[in-house]
Structures are given as C-alpha cells and as structure tokens.
Design the sequence.
C-alpha cells in the first residue's frame, strides 16, 4: 500500500474578490448635483409600544392618540458618536401647519448603551443596593423560589435577575423589593410553570416569531402588526374578553419560553432585540385591540423588567411618529434611548445597522429564509457582503477562481430597479466569455433574491454586475460558496 503522504488531497480552491465601480454615462452629471441627500440615521430614544403587540418595557405613558404630523430628523454628529435613530418619511403633502409642527420636532437624543451585569462593574452605591436587596430577599423567602428558570439566591445568576428589578426602580431597594414580591405573587397566581407546557395553538406564528440574532448577539423577536388586518384572525383573537385573555396567555407563554433561552450568567446575553413591523398596522381605532394592548402592556411592565435591548419600529407611518412626538416629553431619557424608528424606504438600512443581512428575513430586505429551507446552499451562518450602490453607477463584483469548482451565489438589491448581469471570463486568451445571465432590468415585483450556479472548468473570473441607473442610493447584498467540481 502506498504511503498516504504520497497522495495528498488537492489544495483548497482559492478565490479572490474585488469590487469595481464605474459611473453610468447615460445620466447627466447635473442630476447628481440636484438630487436631495438621503436622510441620515439618527439617534432616538425610548417610547413604549402603543400598537397591538406590547413588549416588555419600563413604565411609560399609555396615551393612545395620534396627530397629523410627520417626523424628520437629521444630525451632523460624527458617526462614531451617535446611535441610529431612524426616521419615517415625511407626509408627502404636508399642510403649512403640519410642516411647522414638523420643524419643531426634537432632533438629537442621547444614545443608550446596555449596562453591565457584572458586579465588578457596578458603582459602590449600586453594589451596596444589590447586597441590601439580596439580604431582604433572603430574609423573606422561606422556600425554594425560581424565576425564569433561575433559582433565586443559589448562584451568581441571581445577581443578574435582581439587577433588572433594581434598574427598573432606579436602584431604590424597597421599591425593587416590592416589585419582585409582586412579580413572584403574580407568577404563582398566573401559574406560569403550567402555562409553559400548554398547547395554545399556532395561529400567531406569523404575528410574533423569533428569528436570528443581532450583531451584538441578542435574539431577535419580530412583531408583525399588519397580520391583524386579517378580519378572521382579528375576531378570533380580540372580539371577546375571553379571547383577549387567551391572547394574553399566548403572549406571556411566548415571552416566557423566549426568556428561558437567555443567558443569565454575568456578562451573558439576557435581553431581547425587538423589531416591530408597523406596515398595515390597524392603528389606534380598534377598540378591542387597544384593550388587549393596555392590559398586556401593564403586565409586561410590572413583571418583566429590563428585557428589551432595543426597540426598532420599521415601516412606521407618519401618524405613529406624530404619536411618539406627543408623548416623548413624558418619557425618561433612558427609555427613549432604546427606541429607533424607520419609514418604509429606510427600514432595511436601519435593520442592517443592528442585524447582519444573513440574519434578516427576506421579507425585511435580508437573505435569511424564516419559514422554509428554500435555498439549501446557504444558511444564517454564511456571511453576506454589503456594497453601497451610488446613484447612476455600475458596480461589478469580480470573483477570480484558481481551481476547478462549482460556484453558487445569491444576491439582491432591496427594491431592485437596477439591471443585473452575470458572466464568466476565462483567463485563456483564446477562451470565450460565457453569458450566465444577460443584462436584465429587475423590477420591485421580481423575486427578491437571485440565485445561480456555474461549473468552472477553466480558470477565470466570475463577474456580477449591477447597473444602478436611478438617482437613488441602493445597497447590494451578495454571498457565494465553492462546491467540489464533478464531471
């Protein structure tokens, strides 16, 4: 038998990727000079969720009003000094009164950074409050008690739990102690442990679902308000007090199951990133929805402190921004700092700031499939490359391949309205270029993601070209994978 070292495996395929950008000569230069600068990301602060699916947050005004005004924010702050506070598009035809109110909207707000849950990072006064809190709890608890799967006073995870209650009450120990006692009593009365195992159906699977993680590792929860435009689902969920109570039980069950997957060790990820899709939201006119929201919001505020890392509201209509503007003066700066808003055209950009595209569902501009495995070649573990597409320019992704292989790729431009082509150019001088995809104008109604593959038998380059002839800045997302060559 030959020595195994005499027949080593072939070297791995080597791929070199380059990007090139060229101006589109068909568009006059004057058009670029007259185009309005796109809205910049802005840093906003915290508002409690008012629409249908309330999220755990700290106490805040529960007004349910709206006003006919739009919000536009901008800032000259350096990028590294600000967090994104997205803005919804303006009302396209504002009245003079609406424009005047819009001009008075607050602009820059302080960014929020999640506090450390390590005792060593606390101030002396915070450490003292934590120790006092633990002593009060130890003196009052006469039996083993667990909350969110964590047995209290048994290990260091207790510190993380207690810090949530302390921060919810500004480190006022007696207030935090009263809050946790009320929470423990409510959990017992609500029979949370039994609720976890109940079968409450799957009607809400597309209304609220977990999918992927943020760039900082927080699990992401999507709340899709527009699903309640379905009259059958709405009536089944909210039409009677009994149905609203069932909805509340389902929402608490979903939250409890999600929380028990968090890491309560010091330094662990123990908060959730919330994405609230307001597209086609029923709005404040639905009385039954308001009642269910108010009840759920109160329970979440009272019994689930400090579980939201960030609240991002996408596809926000102008009236929602007006509502936020009205109540924001009554909120704490800390609460406001967790909130981010984006209108429809800005929503993908805002999501990508916090969540990488491979983790964002296709319906929200990313490349991740949430309800099926439609493309088995890629998963959320396969990173996506993002390239900005300037107005009236062509962008070419050049992938140089040095071994025989099969290359598979997928790409998208959110909203399309660009031309896309793909070809393979061999390195050999007498080789012929292979047109894989002739230049095709892609419209917003086309499939959001283009997938393709090519068998590389000769060394050469794969060229993926996007021609953005519009006056809008866009974003190209793509990824590729090399598979073994087979005859």
Sequence:
């Amino acid at each position: 038998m030959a020595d195994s070292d005499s027949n080593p495996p072939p070297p791995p395929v080597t791929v070199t990727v380059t990007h090139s950008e060229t101006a589109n000569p068909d568009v006059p230069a004057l058009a670029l000079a007259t185009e309005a600068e796109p809205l910049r990301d802005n840093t906003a602060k915290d508002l409690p969720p008012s629409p249908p699916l309330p999220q755990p947050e700290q106490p805040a005004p529960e007004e349910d009003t709206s006003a006919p005004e739009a919000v536009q924010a901008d800032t000259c702050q350096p990028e590294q000094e600000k967090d994104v506070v997205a803005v919804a598009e303006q009302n396209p035809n504002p009245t003079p009164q609406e424009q005047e109110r819009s001009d008075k909207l607050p602009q820059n707000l302080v960014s929020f950074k999640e506090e450390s849950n390590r005792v060593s990072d606390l101030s002396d006064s915070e450490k003292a409050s934590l120790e006092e809190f633990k002593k009060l709890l130890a003196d009052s608890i006469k039996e083993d008690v667990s909350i969110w799967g964590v047995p209290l006073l048994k290990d260091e995870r207790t510190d993380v739990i207690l810090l949530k209650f302390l921060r919810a009450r500004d480190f006022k120990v007696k207030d935090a102690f009263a809050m946790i006692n009320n929470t423990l009593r409510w959990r017992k009365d609500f029979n949370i442990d039994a609720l976890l195992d109940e079968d409450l159906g799957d009607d809400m699977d597309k209304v609220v679902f977990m999918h992927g993680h943020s760039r900082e590792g927080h699990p992401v929860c999507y709340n899709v308000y527009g699903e309640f435009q379905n009259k059958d689902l709405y009536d089944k969920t909210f039409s009677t007090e009994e149905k609203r109570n069932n909805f509340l039980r389902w929402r608490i069950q979903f939250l409890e199951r999600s929380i028990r997957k968090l890491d309560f060790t010091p330094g662990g990820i123990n908060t959730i990133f919330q994405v609230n899709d307001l597209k086609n939201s029923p709005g404040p006119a639905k009385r039954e929805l308001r009642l269910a929201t108010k009840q759920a919001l109160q329970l979440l505020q009272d019994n689930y402190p400090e579980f939201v890392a960030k609240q991002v509201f996408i596809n926000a209509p102008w009236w929602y921004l007006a509502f936020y503007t009205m109540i924001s003066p009554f909120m704490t700066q800390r609460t406001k700092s967790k909130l981010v808003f984006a209108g429809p055209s800005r929503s993908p950009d805002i999501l990508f700031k916090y969540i990488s595209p491979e983790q964002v569902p296709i319906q929200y501009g990313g490349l991740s499939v949430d309800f099926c495995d439609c493309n088995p070649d890629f998963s959320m573990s396969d990173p996506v490359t993002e390239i900005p597409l300037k107005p009236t320019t062509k962008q070419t992704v050049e992938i140089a391949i040095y071994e025989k292989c099969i290359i598979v790729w997928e790409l998208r431009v959110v909203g399309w309205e660009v031309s896309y082509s793909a070809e393979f150019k061999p390195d050999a001088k007498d080789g012929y270029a292979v047109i894989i995809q002739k230049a095709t104008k892609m419209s917003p109604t086309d499939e959001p993601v283009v997938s393709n593959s090519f068998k590389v038998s000769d060394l050469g380059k794969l060229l993926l070209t996007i021609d953005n002839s519009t006056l809008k800045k866009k974003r190209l997302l793509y990824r590729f994978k090399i598979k073994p060559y087979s005859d």
In short: The chain has three domains: 11-35+381-483, 79-113+194-355, 119-190. Confidence is low (pLDDT under 50) at residues 1-11, 26-111. The longest strand covers residues 474-483.
